[in-house]
Amino acid sequence: MVRELTQREILTELESVAEDALNRHLSMARDWHPHDYVPWDRGRDFAMLGGVDFEPGQSSLSEVAKAALVTNLLTEDNLPSYHREIAENFSRDGAWGSWVGRWTAEEMRHSTVLRDYLVVTRGVDPVALERARMTHMTNGFAAPLDQLPGEEAGFLYSVAYVSFQELATRISHRNTARVCGDPVADRMLQRVALDENLHMIFYRSMCEAALELVPDQAMAAIDTIVENFRMPGAGMPDFRRNGVLMAKYGVYDLRQHCEEVLDPVLRQWNIFSRTDFGPRGDRARERLAAFLDRLRTVDIPRFEEQRDRSLARDRARGIDRTS
Q: Is 151 annotated as a binding residue?
């Protein structure tokens, strides 16, 4: 029987890979500045400084665009919780610590630029936005495994989760740009999405290296994460309502999650063609295959049928949430 490696042993074995991945990231990343992406000339004072407070008619964003932008922003706001999770499950030393610091610094720009854009353009009610931020950050972020009795979080589960989550966030930002109808928002969100893609590449590379090092342990973690995946904003105020709007209008839905997030990452890792799994890894792969089959043949068709009926009802009532 092959001995399972501890988290510390895995981190030690993979540190040179992490250093190479960090150096590759630094060579590819390009500095950018949030203030360059905000249309400051649209700004004006609020009532406290003698101006006018927010009123709904001031926003040019559609209902769907507001839901997506607020969801994306509140997700980015919870960075302190994500930093804690990554720092606890990776390491603060060596290449690991350097990556955690760099990733956190890059991620911080996302909430900065999104909030500045929404406040300056009066896209949403800034008071409601701040109250939602306070609630969401006070509650913090609970990793998916925190909800599963008997499962312990750790490096393998964490790196598997962020491999999928960073790509999912990139797609959400990219599709939010499409529904905003504002070239300034489009440019801003495409810039944020580029960051998320580079972050995904780092984490995906580390998970791929873990599969080579401890295939059975990594496969078990991947299966658990995929079957219990939740977006990091799942606990925010109005997440269900906003998530339904985003799914209904193609910002992020179940088919996109399967075909644009799960499938390409699993394909990159060669999950269904690998020959190095033992009994534990084979069982996890079989569970994953069955889960994906249900997703494709039952869950996605059911969702799309319900979505199409709902859209038809909206059209019959003359409701347009995209303008």
A: no
